[in-house]
Amino acid sequence: MNILYIGSSGALSLSPFKKLLATGYSIAAVGVYHPVVLRNKIIVLANKSLESESLALAANQHDIPVIDLAQPVGFILDQCKQYAIDLILMSCYSKRLPEALIEYAVDGCFNMHPSLLPRYRGPEPLFWHMKDAAALGV
Q1: What structural domains does the chain harbor?
Q2: Burial of 68 (0-12, 13-18, 19+ CB in 10 A)
């Protein structure tokens, strides 16, 4: 099973990505919105803390291709076909996926969200969850 892992550049996207790698799952590609690339290489900033928080950089370090999800859906689907994507896993990705991309994944598309849904959806869900002192868990 080939996985397209979609996320942002924060720790809540990077941590599940690293866990999937450590457990031997086949991450065929990583999708991020507007990765900073130059000649198919991720631009590495001098600040080490920024490097360690970049999902695109982590993918690059593991020789996993990065798909720019800001591209037209046809381009994204072509990339998914190239990498034989079966399953999409997402964590902390703030944009809606095109319906055609969701339908493409024959084994499904699953989103890991850091807070309880639907109440704590949208931008900054953890802030509102903590502000309301809401109970943790499902």
Answers
A1: 3-131 (3.40.50.170)
A2: middle
